[in-house]
Specification:
Shape: globular
Distance between the termini: 35 Å
Number of helices: 12
Bound molecules: flavin-adenine dinucleotide
Strand content: 25-35%
Largest sheet: 8 strands, mixed
Structural class: alpha+beta
CATH architecture of one domain: 3-Layer(bba) Sandwich
Helix content: 25-40%
Radius of gyration: 21 Å
Strand order of the largest sheet: 6-5-14-15-16-13-17-20
């Protein structure tokens, strides 16, 4: 009864996506999630996700995209980025690369709900929730997971999708390289005088970037990176003072801020696991990496991890190879670790470059932005990368014609 091909610890968006991918491929999966299943009380999420085209394809391939987009999903067709320290600016438009949009802004609760619905339709996927894993025992040919109050589960592979603090990663003895940005991501939902124009806006300020992301109901979700003490001050302000400070920081691009709710701050930290695998175990999502939110890539990278790991495991099973063995899992680690590191380093470079107020650097980056804006092909490549349309993508994130061409 409690024997599975794969056990996933953590039923966040990344863990649930991995379970859907493995379950859809015919594997038996247990998902262990500590939190009570969320009841939709209608309270909006303060933090929303910019979901790339690659992630949308993964959700489409798993049969959950229609359920997500029916609930939420605001397509954005343009992106405007500019520097507070000069006249440099760049404008991305989906029409320039023949795409209908650049991505979607979605509240996580809707993604979670659609994934849970899909899991319930998969006969071989079992959700243990609320349930905590207590310990694991790794043997030569299987892994046993002991749950608090819910018995034991066995499988050939255990997956840590249990978030940035990942108790399972710690139990496996996998170290992380970490850097505290000493910044917080202040998020809130805000109403602006003028409509958002289906555009994602980002202004680079010396303390960090400020993004206005369009939502389906016409509001915007903001992510304002600030030195931690300043973020705390913003949290403590009354509504009127906060609206005034935010409007000014955004140069009133969409007019005055007329309303806001759900103001919260998240400490920002980069973290990267030194290994993604050990015998009979693999890390995915924030358990493997956390990244600066300035390009909204965190969960998108996690979804690519989930799709890549599912592909490696199902390929191994089809060839009757042991999918929990290091020899098989190494393909997953090689595939994802380098790509994630590249994206993390690029975000750090942006954060450092735009946070610098020294005149020569400010001048150079403004020139760089303007040159990039004028350079059609280079800009298109950058756009396609940010949308997740380039690179070594797992089959679930590719369009079906591409998959059959390379099969
Ligand atoms: C301000 C901010 C803005 C962001 N914006 C974006 C964005 O626009 N786009 C984007 O792609 N990303 C964004 N991110 C990143 C994104 O939030 C994360 O990458 C994403 O939530 C990671 O998902 P996950 O499923 O890996 O982990 P989590 O969402 O942390 O899920 C882990 C799950 O594991 C469970 N768990 C933990 N311990 C146990 C245990 N012992 N037993 C059982 N279950 C356990 C938890 O309850 C939880 O449900 C942003 C982050 C921040 C801070």
């Amino acid at each position: 009864m409690n024997q599975f091909d794969v056990i996933i610890i953590g039923g966040g968006i990344v863990g649930l996506t991995a379970a859907c991918a493995l379950g859809t491929a015919g594997l038996s999966v247990a998902v262990v999630e500590a939190r009570e299943p969320a009841v939709d009380t209608g309270v909006r999420d303060a933090r929303v996700y910019a979901v790339t085209r690659a992630s949308e394809r993964i959700f489409t391939a798993l049969g959950v995209w229609d359920a997500i987009s029916a609930r939420d999903a605001c397509a954005f067709r343009e992106m405007r980025v500019w520097d507070a320290g000069g006249s440099g600016a760049i404008h991305f438009d989906c029409a320039d690369i023949g795409e209908p949009f650049l991505g979607h802004i979605i509240e996580p609760r809707f993604i979670q709900a659609a994934l849970l619905e899909r899991l319930q339709a998969l006969a071989d996927v079992q959700l243990f929730c609320p349930a905590h894993y207590r310990d694991i025992e790794i043997r030569e040919d299987h892994v046993t997971v002991m749950l608090k109050d819910a018995g034991t589960l066995t499988a050939g592979l255990v997956v840590a999708a249990d978030g940035a603090r990942s108790p399972l990663r710690e139990r496996l003895g996998i170290q992380v390289r970490a850097h505290d940005y000493k910044q917080s991501g202040l998020v809130a939902l805000v109403k602006t005088e003028q409509g958002h124009q289906e555009t994602a806006w980002q202004r680079f300020l010396p303390g960090g970037p400020l993004a206005f992301l369009p939502m389906r109901d016409g509001w915007c979700s903001i992510v304002w990176t600030l030195p931690t003490a300043e973020a705390d001050q913003m949290l403590a302000l009354g509504s009127e003072a906060f609206h005034a400070a935010l409007g000014e920081a955004f140069e009133y691009r969409l007019g005055r801020i007329t309303d806001s709710e759900q103001r919260k701050a998240f400490p920002l930290r980069r973290q990267h696991a030194t290994r993604y695998i050990s015998e009979r175990a693999a890390l995915i999502g924030d358990a493997a990496h956390t990244i600066h939110p300035l390009a909204g890539q965190g969960v998108n990278l996690g979804l690519l991890d989930a799709a890549a790991l599912a592909e490696v495991v199902t390929d191994a099973q089809a060839r009757t190879r042991d999918s929990g063995s290091i020899a098989v899992l190494r393909r997953y680690e090689r595939w994802r670790r380098g790509d994630n590191l590249l994206m993390m380093s690029a975000m750090d470079a942006f954060n450092l470059l735009f946070g610098n107020t020294r005149p020569p650097l400010r001048w150079a980056r403004n020139l760089g932005l303007s040159l990039m804006d004028a350079a059609g092909p280079a800009k298109d490549v950058l756009m396609r990368h940010a949308m997740g349309l380039e690179g070594d993508l797992p089959a679930l994130a590719r369009i079906p014609e591409e998959v059959s061409r390379t099969a």
